[in-house]
Amino acid sequence: MACDKGFSSSFMLLKPEEVGLFDLFHILFSSKLEEKKFVDCPEGTVTEEISFRRRWLIFVSILAQKLLQLVSKPLSVVGSGIEMCLNLVSVNRNVFVLVINCFRGVVVKPDKTSATFLSFIGNFDKRVELDSTIKYDDAKYHAALSMMASKASYENNAYIETTVRDHWKMEFLGSFDFWNDYQQKATTQAFMLRDKSSDHDTIVVAFRGTEPFDADAWCSDFDISWYELSGVGKIHGGFMKALGLQKNVGWPKETKQGDGHPDLAYYAIRDMLNKLLSQNDQARYILTGHSLGGALAILFSAVLALHNDTWLLERLQGVYTFGQPRVGDEKFGEFMEKQLQEHNFQYFRFVYGNDMVPRLPYDDKALMFKHFGTCLYYNRHYEVKVVDQEPNKNYFSPLGAIPMIINAFFELIRSFTIAKTKGPDYKEGTFLRIFRIIGLVFPGIPAHSTQDYVNATRLGSSDVFLLPKHTSSHEDVSSLQV
User: Has 397 been annotated as catalytic?
Assistant: First the structure.
């Protein structure tokens, strides 16, 4: 079924499935994008010649999506194989014991559905327990809980349920696979928990980020299509599709679920929150996620605002995102800043070091994506600043390459010393250390790991969370360093 774009005032949609080899390379030499069958936009959207830089980014976006679609199945097989090997070593204690067990014929085989099976990302940071030194009355409690929930979201249902119920002593509300109407698959995941005691009742919604071997999730990231919503601004198309945008109706306030496929993320989570929050007038909820999951978390609140869902916005305690990519343009940022003030909820955007993901898509004339909200920037010592913009905002900078590589070298050295300086909970394994070596060539990749974000929420100062709720990243607070 064709997509009805009547819900948006303007749009530019890339359709990689309709691009041939000749058309793909022709993008680089023709500025008339409106005439291309694989670019869907209203007449008059492109009123001037498209710069080569913008055409190059469109070329890269389409090429990446086509390659990902081509290698989707083998990529998944490779990923499953790597995960199985990592868990095979883990359940047999180490490589040496595994070899001995092979000779003895008593190899322990991992179960992908068990509570001990770890994803590729989970093998970087195997910590399960919350930091016992961070109590509920600590200003960084929700940040630390949110990051651990974001990390756990990459795992299977049994792992998440066991972690929440047995280790964190909280109520597990469910782990879900949600439908992407454009990919025609259930490619969006999230889980919910309830942190309840005599003095608080908080529901946490954690969206899963991009898994390294999930081609569909990577396609959502690389899809630089956008929709412009009247009075809201331009929003990343790939993220909207992952959250629950529908082909033929867009973002209706109400929709029919259960047409032979899993529910759409936004509508299902919204309905669950309505039901759960109605049970206790004092209950609040938090939205969180790492990477793509962070983009979905803040976009969820944006769609609530689009639907004028004041009741749920008033019950929203905060949004905590970690290594989140940019979601919309400057107008969208201004719209969301207004929502933060009107509905009095906090939005903390965590950025660690040279993590490349928060610096994408580009904030420039070609793509015009902008961040907003309170940006907490952590250096390799886990010292935090509230900044207007993370340093080197578009990542790819020849002048910034050498300092980033030097920083990656010191991060590698730190991986051998941090257990002694900060305690055994911060010990890094061989797998993560190998990954940090990659940072000597591509500094922004290891910096996106969950390990550094968990460390940041635990070791960073609590003072930054004591800022007034309405503090914006556009205010002059960049001098604050703790």
Answer: no
Crossing angle of the two packed helices 215-222 and 72-91, in degrees rounded to 10: 120
Q: 119, 195, 448, 449: which one is catalytic?
A: 448
Catalytic residue, from 355, 363, 371, 452: name it. 355
Beta strands in 249-331 (DSSP E): 284-290, 316-322, 328-329
Give the chain's mean pLDDT. Answer: 90
Residue with tokens 């782990």: 175
Active-site entry in 146, 291, 301, 473: 291
Strands, E assignment, 211-343: 226-229, 233-236, 284-290, 316-322, 328-329
- Residue 291 a catalytic site member: yes
Dist. CA 378–CA 399, nearest whole Å? 21
Between 457 and 22, the more confident residue is 457
**Tokens coding 404:** 């980033």
Backbone phi, then psi, for 333, in 5-degree steps?
A: -60, -40
Q: What pLDDT score was predicted for residue 112?
A: 94
316 sits in the region (left: phi over 0; alpha: psi -120 to 50; else beta) called beta
197-245, pLDDT tens digit by residue?
A: 988 999 999 999 999 999 998 888 888 888 999 999 999 999 999 999 9
Greater model confidence, 25 or 4: 25
Q: Does the active-site annotation cover 448?
A: yes
